[in-house]
Amino acid sequence: MVRAAVLPAVGAPLEIAEIDLPDPGPGQVRIRLAAAGVCHSDLSLSNGTMRVPVPAVLGHEGAGTVVSVGEGVTHVAPGDPVILNWAPSCGTCHACTLGEVWLCANALNGAADVYAHRASDGSDLHPGLNVAAFAEETVVAASCVLPLPEGIPLTDAALLGCAVLTGYGAIHHSAQVREGETVAVFGVGGVGLSTLQSARIAGATTIVAVDVSPEKEELARAAGATDYVVASDNTAREIRTLTGKQGVDVAVECVGRAVTIRTAWESTRRGGRTTVVGIGGKDQQVTFNALELFHWGRTLSGCVYGNSDPAKDVPVLAEHVRAGRLDLGSLVTERIALDGIPGAFENMVAGKGGRALVIF
């Protein structure tokens, strides 16, 4: 038996409970978690903004050590350090055949599986976003496991599984920021901090961080922000002032709110690019008129998982870490135990801190 944070129903408080995990079957891997990041997507799953079968063990950003493997698994072995990939591509759907593996139609099929049982009553448990990282150990499909490149601290490596891949991909894959361009990042949480670091790595000059909290300025500047704007009704105007009244070349929205998306759009120059990373609810309606779409010539695009291919991008990110260009530890503002996850959710809602990391 292992301890896990169980979501018994949508909107219900998380419960720390003992669960029974099976031995890994064919094509499966059992992993002892070293750390798991608390992502805004976990909060969205718990409150129903995003839907998964429940009861479930959430957590999708994790790293750990292989305990055992099932028949047919050859790319990892017991004792190997690994990263969890919560959205593995099937390789055969239409998106995968186009090379757009981040849009795989079958990536989340595993979330409907029963992967474990509650020890107290034997009730079924689902694996959240495939990997159930809010637990001391988990059993996942082999496709959800990536070998950890050498030279990366195992606990910090958990952040590569979502926040860093998303932030890096938003800059390098979706917006395709070029050296010398200007960038604004809306939302200075775990993903936003990763986006700021990635903009710096890409060679952006002016990098404006925007957040509702003045207390996050130091975090943002340490990540690479050259300027900091406390969100207000004048945010777009302030950003245009910082960029010669033109607006930034690229704005990346990491919040998922209609007003923030609209402000990010208005902060980009004529012909600029706005990339939306934040996951908002269906009630968040963004409106544009036909004339402004024509006149401004801006590009507005969604960005799923950083438009990344984890198998290809994790080694690239590891090289940035080893070279000192990417600082994983600086993204973490709180290290907690399993029972600290509800508090981390509360901090997200209140706009406090960067990434909370569950340490096992």
Give the topology, please.
Blueprint: E1 2-7, E2 15-20, E3 28-38, H1 40-47, E4 56-57, E5 61-69, E6 81-84, H2 94-97, E7 116-118, E8 124-125, E9 137-141, E10 145-147, H3 154-157, H4 163-174, E11 183-186, H5 190-202, E12 207-211, H6 217-223, E13 227-230, H7 235-242, E14 248-253, H8 258-267, E15 268-276, H9 290-296, E16 299-302, H10 310-322, E17 332-336, H11 341-350, E18 355-359
Helix pairs in contact: 4-5, 7-8
Describe the structure.
- The protein has helices spanning 40-47, 94-97, 154-157, 163-174, 190-202, 217-223, 235-242, 258-267, 290-296, 310-322, 341-350; strands at 2-7, 15-20, 28-38, 56-57, 61-69, 81-84, 116-118, 124-125, 137-141, 145-147, 183-186, 207-211, 227-230, 248-253, 268-276, 299-302, 332-336, 355-359.
- The protein has 360 residues and is an alpha/beta fold.
- The strands form three sheets. Strands 3, 5, 6, 9, 10, 17 and 18 form a seven-stranded mixed beta sheet that branches.
- Strand 15 (268-276), helix 9 and strand 16 form a beta-alpha-beta unit.
Q: Estimate percent helicity.
A: 25-40%
Number of helices: 11
| General form | globular
Q: What is the oligomeric state here? A: single chain
Main beta-sheet annotation = 7 strands, mixed
> Residue ranges: pLDDT <50 for 5 or more in a row?
none
The overall strand count is 18
What would the average pLDDT be, to the nearest integer? 96
What's the Cα radius of gyration?
20 Å
List the secondary-structure elements in sequence, H or E.
EEEHEEEHEEEEHHEHEHEHEHEHEHEHE
Report the end-to-end length measured between terminal Cα atoms. Answer: 15 Å
